[in-house]
Automatic annotation (TrEMBL):
Keywords: ATP-binding, Cell cycle, Cell division, Nucleotide-binding. It comes from Pedococcus bigeumensis. The lineage of its organism: Bacteria, Bacillati, Actinomycetota, Actinomycetes, Micrococcales. Pfam families: AFG1_ATPase (PF03969). GO terms for molecular function: ATP binding; ATP hydrolysis activity. One of its GO terms (cellular component) is cytoplasm. This is Cell division protein ZapE.
Length: 350
């Protein structure tokens, strides 16, 4: 809120708004909140199967909706039954895996399933679950989630062998406890139409659980970029400041942000953004350090979850990661971050 200075004769003068800074935000670890925050992002609060609009030229989308509605109904029939009833559901092989490219509505569908399901449930990205294990420890995470009816994992990632083994082990423990599982993929944009390969990778990496998952392919183009494919041009520094002041957001030099992220555990990025209405970055430049890039990916996910507009000057956000990084082992993460940051930077088109 702006500060008003009242003068005796000339009325009042409104002092300029001084934007806040992410650098002032270093939230402490709240273990209970980490579990409570495992819910769909606010942008999906009102989304249901009925609000998903299947592309008539992509029949796999309507087929996925129909299958998930049946799956949700079966979850409802399970209710909070006894252990042996839940165990039977495990033996019936009840996991679902949505395979497809960016922006085809997989998260919308996964969130709709979460909303439709009864009982205790959790929804988070692959990274959020690995961060949860990092913050709580493996066994406490198993204990925190094993009483759930449903655990949803958005953007299951296969690019880090250690994390993949960790998640496969976690899911195995949860499946044994009778927890229903649902996951989505993060197939590369240039792999559209070849989703079956991502699905095979997923099933191979979670070998012991592969028989427990049914793969549902969701084809189609990235809806976020159907009208504007290229990254929006960068703003001037004055435009960034004006946009942040208008939204009452935070403003920082891009390099300062990257350094600050190293001081905050990624599990706390969500709470670091509490109450933030917009972020402004000046002097955006190429990211060449892998650790810095991966932290930016997590920040991009949390910004996107909260639907926080991004104002940026310097390098176009679409060029944030080098061609070498986009061809490397973490390319899926970087493509997702670009897709989401450029969507948030199109605030004038929303």
């Amino acid at each position: 809120m702006s500060t008003v200075l009242h003068l005796p004769r000339s009325g009042f003068t409104r002092l300029p708004i001084v934007p806040g800074s992410l650098l002032d935000r270093s939230p402490q670890l709240d273990r209970g909140r980490l579990v409570r925050d495992l819910v769909p992002p606010p942008r999906f609060d009102a989304e249901r199967f009925s609000t998903y609009r299947p592309d008539p030229t992509e029949p796999s989308q309507a087929a996925a909706v129909e299958r998930l509605e049946r799956y949700a109904a079966r979850l409802g029939q399970r209710g909070g039954g006894r252990w042996f009833a839940r165990r039977k559901a495990v033996d019936d092989g009840r996991g679902v895996y949505l395979d497809g490219g960016f922006g085809v509505g997989k998260t919308h569908l996964l969130a709709s399933l979460w909303h439709e399901a009864s009982g205790t449930k959790a929804f988070g990205t692959f990274v959020e679950y690995t961060n949860l294990v990092g913050a709580l420890g493996f066994q406490p995470t198993v204990e925190a989630l094993s009483g759930h009816q449903l655990v949803c994992i958005d953007e299951f990632e296969l690019d880090d062998p250690g994390d993949t083994v960790l998640m496969a082990t976690l899911l195995g423990r949860l499946a044994t406890a009778g927890v229903s599982l649902a996951a989505t993929s993060n197939t590369l944009p240039d792999a559209l139409g070849a989703g079956r390969f991502a699905a095979e990778d997923f099933l191979r990496e979670i070998q012991a659980l592969s028989a427990k998952f049914e793969v549902l392919t969701v084809d189609g183009p990235d809806y976020r970029h159907r009208d504007t494919v290229d990254s929006p041009p960068p703003s001037s520094e004055d435009e960034v400041r004006a946009g942040v002041e208008r939204e009452g957001g935070v403003l920082d030099h891009f390099i300062d942000v990257t350094r600050h992220l190293a001081t905050v555990h990624p599990s706390r990025y969500r709470s670091m953004l509490d109450g933030v209405t917009a972020v402004g970055w000046t002097h955006v430049r190429p990211v060449t350090d892998q650790a810095v890039a991966l932290r930016l990916v997590v920040l991009a996910d949390r910004l996107y979850d909260a639907d926080i507009p991004v104002f940026a000057s310097g390098l176009p956000l679409g060029d944030l990661f080098s061609a070498e990084m986009l061809a490397g082992g973490y390319r899926k993460k970087y493509f997702r971050a670009i897709s989401r940051l450029t969507a948030l930077a199109r605030h004038d088109l929303r």
